[in-house]
Amino acid sequence: MARFLMRRLVLFILALIGISLLIFLALRILPGDVAAIMAGLDAPPERVDRLRRQMGLDRSYPRQYLDWIGDFLQGDLGRSILTNRSIASQVGVRAQITFPLILLGLAVALLLGIPLGCAAALARSPRMQSFSHMVAIVGGSVPALWSGLLLIMLFAKGSGLIGLLPSQGFPALGWAQPGQALAALILPALSTGIIVGAGIMRYTRSLLGDMLSSGYVDMGMACGMTRTQAALRIGLRLASPQLVSVIGLTMAEMITGVMVSENLFALPGLGSMLITDVGNRDLPAVQSELLLLAAFFLFLGLLVDVIHRLIDPRFRGAARQEVVAL
Amino acid sequence: MNWGHEDRPHLGLRATFPGQLGFFGRMRVVLSSMWRKASGRYSLIVLAIWILVSLVSRFWTPVPIWVTDGYRIWQAPSRAHLLGTDGTGADILSWLMAGSATNLVISLLAVLLSGVLGLLLVMAMVSRRSGVSQTVVVLVDALISLPTVLLALILAVPLGPSIAVVVVACGFGYGLNLARIVRPQALLAAESDYVRSARHSGVGSFRIFCTHLVPNVIPVLCVQLSMSAGTSVLAEAGLTYLGVGVPSGLPSWGHSLTTSVKFINVFPLTVLWPGLVVTMVVVALNLFGDALRDAIDPVTNPRLRAAVAAAGRSTLQSVRQETSACLEASGHASEGDNHVAEY
Amino acid sequence: MNADRHGTHAHDSVTAADTDVAQEPGPSTDPELNARIRPMKSGGNTLPWKLLSLLLALALAISLWTGHRGVAGQAEGGSVADTVTVGLKLAPTNLDIRNQSGTALDQLLIGNVYQGLVSRDSRNRVRPGLAKSWNISEDGLVYTFHLHEGIRFSNGHALRAQDVVDSIRGLMAGHYQGSEMLEGFQGVEATDPLTVRLTLSRPYQDLLWQLSGRAGLVFDRRAHYDMKTQAVGSGPYMLASFRPNDSVTLKADPHYWGSDKPKTPTIVIRYLNDDNAAVNALRSGDVQVLAPVTENLASPFRKSPDFQVKAGDDTDKYVLAMNGKGGATSDPRVRQAIRHAIDHRQLIASRGGSDRALGGPIPSLDPGYQDLTRLYPHDPEQARRLLAQAGYGPEHRLKLRLTYANTYGSELGDQLRSQLRQVGIDLDVRVVEFSVWLQDVHANKDYDLSLVDHGESHDFHQWANPGYYYNYDNRQVQELYRQAMATTSADDSDRLLAQAAWIVSKDAAADWLFNYRVTTAWRKGLEGFPVDLNQSLMPLSDVIYRRG
Predict the structure, then answer these.
(1) Closest CA to C504 of C457, C452, C468, C536
(2) Which chain B residue's Cα is nearest to A306?
(3) A131, A319, B282, C192: which is deepest, by most CB within 10 A?
(4) Which residue in B has a C-alpha nearest to residue C437's C-alpha?
(5) Neighbours of C162 (CB within 10 A)
(6) Which numeric CATH code is attached to B23-342?
(7) Which of residues 90-109 of C touch B (CB under 8 A)?
């Protein structure tokens, strides 16, 4: 475990350095500079030059990179050139929308995916099985943008068929109005959660199906449990390490849907901030946000790996040879 | 080669290897097996339409896609415009048709890239040098949690919205995923006696990889690549909506979806079509992988097994005859010999 | 130790679980192998078609329903609201009105938080501001402004002539936004605490109007604050909070010095970049007024009794710039052909019909306006003839590249490509990020055609500047503009500008696609919200909302 952790940590850091270089270079290749945007169309060159000096854009590239990384490691993500606010605080504000949204979406996905997946695995009639298979496949094939639109047309307050929930924006006071804040996130969470839930349903179904055909469930039944009991109490527990891996990766992939949702539902979250900042060429903001997100997801991957190792009984004990396939 | 027997033309036409069903014969059985399943039939139909429409749209669409008409915007479906018109008065059906070509190209390139990248990684992962293999395994684990959209955003900053952004971002992410999923199967095959004996008889590792490992992982590969193709269609829609995908002016399903989103409140009908097309195609791609896997694997497809067996019987027969003929003609070496020996 | 990840097993097992248990006798004698065999399912028990058609039916039903429904208003109690929420589109990224360009800041801050020496009315005419009156010397070189008495900044400091002087001197020294527009500026001084004297080296007709914008803003010389995130001015409102790209809260200044006391204590401005989000926010009551609302989205509000919709005049000119030194576009016949090829009425119709055709560089709210739309009527035949004269034809088609920023959407590019193709011009439309446009087109002048919404008012100087990205260099126009600015008579100035604009249009230096008019929609009961020019000038003190 210790060696595994060491190796994993070293690669985590190497990957982060590689990505930080990639981000830094990608942002320097592009044409156009933020000083010119800020100064406007009819700006005299001296105004642009002065702004550029103020922003430190006249330093050499290696210098800019080292300054950036140094500050980043000290927790200083820099200041946005355009808004002059500390990026860390801005990220903090935006994350209050994005992370609850990811978690809610994940909750939706799990609430839909795991019970339906279990039901599908336990279903005996081939008709039920193929039906649940199709539900999972079709559910996983709907573009998040489209499901979001359908949800707006169905449930949005003001314009939807059944006007239930707000579909646009976040309350101005944020989580100080918990009810409204939560309500504002429900439709976006549904639209990101459904597609992910379909994926989780497929995994649950196949994992549980495997367990059903393994000896463990038979053993449980021999001990007097019903098939359903055995499947849920033994099978699901045995399948949980894999499910953790799947859920971790799912969370990483959910960010695409979250970004689309934030834009569609006009939520001022991290995703919409990133898109706006990219458009504004706010270099310090974009590079710090990208690196922060990359670091977050790389760390998530690391965490999932470690948790997986911790809860998977096959990694405990003396026998540490590789488990190849079931 | 100088074959002299009446049942040999059959062999020569069909077979890549004697003792096996030929590629086209195999494909015919595989396709007909897929066709017998509803899901397989659905996916074959939809994919065939997709490819056909993509080709046709290169030469013909109901209305040329550059035509706009400011006086006829957001029109409901009519005879002139079967799916109505968009915000510039352009024909939605024509744009969807033209978009299918773009999406086909994106999916193919993304699948190709992810397949090549994935197999290269797998090759490194099952490498005999444990330093290489373990490093790659952990590297893939470290990088796999990077979301596609993040990579696309990084790429889009210097490149601007372009097809390349979608292809590279998808290909990279799916390639890593593929490598992880294929690895256990490849390891299993790498430990097999065939490989061991091949290695002992001095066959190079690249050749072993191509001849022994790749065929063994083909079923998993089918499912994964097909799913990747589906996901790339979804990714294209999402990335284009976020402004980092297909550039505007180039037809694609994501583009159609994005333009219609703007006016969903007033003209909700137009948002239906692109979403429906995307859903149908992605469903087809997901089903296609499963169906192909079931049909291409002789272990799971009795019809293929039967066909192979039948072909094998006739081949064996012909080989037997050939051998005796060779013996009679005293010493004609045949190309097929070493293949027969191998299988 | 091997670092295996068990996500992988999940995928393997999909293959095992997705299939049914063996039903037919296996072909192998090995029972274990037989058990692994998954029979091919016969057709009929999977339902992709059914599910998809169900989905289609559902989606169709929803869309038909929502499409044919009116907009329902929400009944609320009858009283005067103490908070009005205004929905706008373009958000300022920061509040530094001296450095940050863009009309979003003018719209938000000028007249509400900051005030200028003089102000504008909704017809773009100069009106008194901090100065209640002014005199201009005979030769047009000395302007004397008389300030109101008792003006206070919202922090309690009194506003004196010295604040005005420091603000204008700071502007010129710092090259801030607007400084380049004070042509011939020589000096400014306070002759007493309520009198400011501004001197010019040569007469400048546009001085007063320019002082009604950013150039004339007066800042508190004794206050120190971060101008990117805060604003302290003498206006009727104080900035209570600013969330970049999201919202701004303005609170009425209880000690406001002027007579136009704010009628609503709190005004929240929300920036809704997404058009649908904006429309939904208005419909659901999250905002009471929306400006702009996309004309094509406004039709449900027009039909509803609970809302009012009106398009206001504005100075936005959608300019299709044609590079005067471009490969093909340097030929006037090509430029003229392009102008004849464009069907402006159709462009306007596709945008909902509220915009106005504009044949030249000066819009109706600016001095020197005259209707020039008849100079180049839509005439594809004439366009083809001109192209043929310039040496282009079916076998040698003219290829041009149109470069514009993605903020304007892809529709205009698609339409222009379609219209120009009909006369034999192949348009390669390149929609880029604004910064790329700035670099390629604006700075490097590397383009054939370009599309920009030039929203600024009084900006004819662009055509008199040969270094501007238009690459338009006409001595006569430059001379006419110089005279128009140098004259002390407003009427003469108007006449000269009109003459210059006619030449620019006649030269086909660009095509003016249309004069964009901003559509504003608001809930019944809301009054006093400016309709004209509200994207650059949005005085809010008259806004009042009576629920009921």
Answers:
(1) C468
(2) B141
(3) B282
(4) B160
(5) 14
(6) 1.10.3720.10
(7) none
Q: Considering only CA atoms, which of A145, C93, C239, C7 is closest in space to residue B241?
A: A145
B312 touches chain C (CB under 8 A): no
CB within 8 Å: B145 and A137: no
**ipTM of this complex:** 0.85
Chain B partners of C275 at a C-beta cutoff of 8 Å?
262-263
Domain boundaries, chain B: 23-342
- Chain C residues with CB-CB distance to A92 below 8 A: none
Model confidence pLDDT, tens digit, residues C161-179: 999 999 999 999 988 988 9
Q: What is the DSSP annotation of A156-179?
A: BTTTSSS--B--S---TTGGGSHH
SS (H, E, C) C320-370: EEECCCCCCCCCHHHHHHHHHHCCHHHHHHHCCCCCECCCCCCCCCCCCCC
Q: Please, which contacts does A62-70 make with residues 24 or more away whose CB atoms are closer than 8 Å?
A: A64/A24, A65/A21, A65/A24, A68/A24, A68/A284, A68/A287, A68/A288, A69/A20
Measured at the CA of C238, the angle between CA C235 and CA C243, to 5 degrees, comes to 130
What's chain C's length in residues?
A: 548
Within a 10 A sphere around the Cβ of B342, how many other Cβ atoms?
11
Averaged pLDDT for residues C99-104: 86
Closest CB to B73: pick one of C26, C49, C350: C350
DSSP C243: E
Per-residue confidence (pLDDT) for residue A68, from 0 to 100: 86
Residue C356 pLDDT > 90, yes or no?
yes
Average pLDDT over residues C283-307: 89
Q: Which of C2, C258, C214, C266 is nearest to C101 (CA)?
A: C214
Q: Is A39 on the interface with C (CB under 8 A)?
A: yes
Taking CB atoms and an 8 Å cutoff, what residues of chain B touch C300?
265-266
Structure tokens at C524: 């019944």
Which amino acid type is present at position A176? A
Calculate the CA dihedral of residues C495, C496, C499, C501 and round it to 10 degrees. Answer: -110
Phi, psi of C270 (to 5 degrees): -110, 135
Pairwise CB contact (< 8 Å): B275 & A142: yes
Helix axes A87-122, A178-213, angle to 10 degrees: 40
Distance CA B120, CA B213 (A): 12
Query: SS3 of A229, please?
Result: helix
Exposed, middle or buried by CB within 10 Å (0-12, 13-18, 19+), for C461? Answer: middle
Question: Kind of pairing, strands C83-88 and C289-290?
Answer: parallel
- The answer to whether the Cβ–Cβ distance between C55 and A273 falls below 8 Å is no
- Residue pair B120/B210 in contact (Cβ under 8 Å)? The answer is no
d(CA C15, CA A205) in angstroms, rounded, equals 11
What pLDDT, on a 0 to 100 scale, did the predictor assign at position B328? 53
d(CA B24, CA B17): 12
Question: Can you tell me the distance from the alpha carbon of C414 to that of B73, in angstroms, rounded to the nearest whole number?
Answer: 13
Q: Which of B153, B187, B278 sits opposite A143 (nearest CB)?
A: B278
Is the link from the previous residue into C292 a cis peptide, with omega within 30 of 0? Answer: yes
A210-241 confidence digits (pLDDT tens): 887 777 778 888 888 888 888 787 888 777 88
Instruction: Give the closest-approach CA distance of C68 to chain A in angstroms.
Output: 11
* Chain C residues touching residue B70 (CB < 8 angstroms): 343, 345-351, 415
DSSP string of A2-64?
HHHHHHHHHHHHHHHHHHHHHHHHHHHHSS--HHHHHH-TT--HHHHHHHHHHTTTTS-HHHH
Backbone angles phi, psi at C58, to 5 degrees: -60, -50
Of B107, C520, C272, C274, residue with least CA distance to A149: C274
pLDDT for the residue numbered A90:
83
Two structure tokens written together for A305: 């790996």
